[in-house]
């Protein structure tokens, strides 16, 4: 299989790289340069009509896009260590926390990125007011996760999971666009240091 | 277990009701009135600090929020019929299509709802320009799903899945806020008629 990958700071391919690293899976990668707009080339659009990375092409030609869907495929074919949880309750709680990252933190980060950042200046339909209004919402979201991490080692359960990967990659992307973790968010800072110390975080 | 539910047009509780109906699960429901702001009451916030419905409280007190996480719990305890797929590829494709609904269609629908609708006029920080700019993006998204449904009976695989439930509830919520399926989207219209004809759609 072939993993269509883009380098940092793109957060979505990094999710899959971290996930694979945690499982010891070596992906055969094909780089797709976002700077060179290779993700919008006819060849790549034939693989993923959304023109986004990552994508995983299986040996039979099936293409799986969307980072979490790609991770779920890897979980099914390489179950250990389980990163989506074992059993009904743990699986549901990991899904709940994954979705909280995606529904609470990612939208304001994305709104700031798409509407205000110098690297997205060429995008049509930007709304600077909307982007700036989302900047404090990123901090609000980081505070929610700080509170949620009180007394916890990892976000969703007592072991590392896909929910931690989603939070890590989103927090790091927020920092890339200029929104760091506030000084007083001690739980989130300690968690961030903990998950960043794992070798997989270098992926 | 207790299912904290809100009536239509709230799209998220409906997802779980449809999911449960497809599996023949009878949920013990506790209504939470959004009109009466019961989802922001201290009692409900103690269950779900996000103040959103639905939520599922298990007999041991564990609370699962986020509609898809709740459905995933129900899938694990009532596997038949499988609505998240069987096997690595099918599970990944259902996740991929579910996420496409959530990442492509839901954001512009939510932006129109939150920023322009008369029922959300009291929300702080509305941006009418941003809301109106998202109205054509809803139509763009519906066109993507129309194209994707060409030659298909269901969205993700050859049988009904959670991805169909997410698309149905989001399309119906879009119609509620005034954005219907354009006349020329024949694949999407036929699919919508097909999934709406299932008894579960009345949930």
Polypeptide structure, described:
Two copies of one chain form a homodimer. Chain A is α+β, with helices and mostly antiparallel strands and 203 residues long. The two termini of chain A are 19 Å apart. In chain A, β1, α1 and β2 form a beta-alpha-beta unit. The first copy, chain A, has a four-stranded mixed β-sheet with strand order 2-1-3-4, with helices on one face. In chain A, α1 runs parallel beside α3 and α4 packs antiparallel against α5. In chain A, 52% of the residues lie in helices and 6% in strands. Chain A folds into two domains: 76 residues, Glutaredoxin (3-Layer(aba) Sandwich), CATH 3.40.30; 115 residues, Glutathione S-transferase Yfyf (Class Pi), Chain A, domain 2, CATH 1.20.1050. Chain A contains seven helices and four strands; from the N terminus they run βαβαββααααα. Chains A and B meet through α3, α4 and α5 of A and α3, α4 and α5 of B.
For the record, the CATH class of the largest domain in chain A is: Mainly Alpha
Element pattern of chain A in H and E: EHEHEEHHHHH
Biggest beta-sheet profile of chain A: 4 strands, mixed
How many helices of chain A does DSSP assign?
A: 7
CATH topology tier name of the largest domain in chain A? Glutathione S-transferase Yfyf (Class Pi), Chain A, domain 2
Describe the SSE topology.
The structure is a homodimer of 203-residue chains.
Chain A: E1 2-5, H1 11-23, E2 29-31, H2 42-47, E3 55-57, E4 63-65, H3 67-77, H4 88-116, H5 128-148, H6 162-176, H7 186-196
Helix pairs in contact in A: 1-3, 1-6, 4-5, 4-6, 5-7
């Amino acid at each position: 299989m072939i993993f269509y990958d883009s380098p940092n700071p793109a957060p979505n391919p990094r999710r899959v790289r971290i996930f694979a690293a945690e499982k010891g899976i070596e992906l055969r990668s094909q780089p797709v340069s976002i700077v060179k707009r290779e993700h919008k080339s006819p060849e790549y659009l034939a693989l993923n009509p959304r023109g986004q990375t990552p994508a995983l092409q299986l040996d039979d030609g099936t293409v799986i896009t969307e980072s979490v869907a790609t991770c779920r495929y890897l979980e099914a074919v390489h179950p250990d260590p389980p990163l989506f949880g074992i059993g009904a309750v743990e699986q549901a709680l990991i899904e709940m926390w994954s979705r909280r990252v995606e529904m609470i933190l990612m939208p304001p980060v994305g709104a700031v990125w798409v509407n205000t950042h110098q690297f997205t200046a060429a995008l049509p339909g930007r709304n600077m007011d909307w982007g700036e209004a989302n900047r404090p919402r990123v901090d609000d979201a980081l505070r929610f996760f700080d509170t949620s991490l009180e007394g916890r080692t990892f976000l969703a359960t007592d072991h590392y999971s896909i929910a931690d990967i989603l939070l890590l990659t989103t927090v790091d992307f927020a920092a890339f666009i200029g929104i760091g973790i506030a000084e007083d968010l001690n739980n989130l800072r300690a968690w961030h240091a903990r998950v960043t110390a794992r070798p997989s975080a270098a992926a």
